[in-house]
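STRUCTURE:
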C-alpha cells in the first residue's frame, strides 16, 4: 500500500487535530477551575447566545439555498411557532426545532414553488 498521494491529507488531518484538540484539552483543564457563576462564564454564555441569534437572524433575513425562495413572513412565522412549541413543551429544544421545521415544511407545501 502506497501513501505517496495521501501524505498531504494525512498532514492536514494531523495538523488540524493538533490545532483544535490542544484547545479542547486546555478548555477542560481551565473549565474545571472556573466557577460556573463567574462573570467570565456568564460573558461566554452571552457571546455564544448572541452568535446563535445572529446566525438565526441571518438565515431568516438573508437566506441562501432552498430557504431563499420562501417568503420572509413564512420564515418568521415558523420561528414564532417553534418558540411557542419550545415553551409549551417545557423548554424542550427538540420540540421547538421540530415545530419550526414542520411549520416551515407545511407552509412551503401549501404555497408551492
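SEQUENCE:
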Amino acid at each position: 500500500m502506497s501513501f505517496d498521494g495521501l501524505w498531504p491529507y494525512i498532514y492536514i488531518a494531523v495538523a488540524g487535530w493538533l490545532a483544535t484538540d490542544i484547545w479542547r484539552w486546555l478548555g477542560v483543564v481551565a473549565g474545571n477551575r472556573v466557577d460556573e457563576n463567574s462573570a467570565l462564564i456568564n460573558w461566554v454564555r452571552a457571546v455564544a447566545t448572541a452568535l446563535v441569534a445572529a446566525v438565526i437572524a441571518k438565515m431568516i433575513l438573508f437566506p441562501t439555498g432552498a430557504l431563499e425562495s420562501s417568503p420572509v413572513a413564512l420564515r418568521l412565522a415558523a420561528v414564532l411557532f417553534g418558540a411557542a412549541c419550545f415553551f409549551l413543551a417545557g423548554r424542550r429544544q427538540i420540540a421547538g426545532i421540530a415545530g419550526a421545521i414542520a411549520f416551515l415544511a407545511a407552509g412551503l407545501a401549501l404555497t408551492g414553488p
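REMARK: The mean pLDDT is 90.
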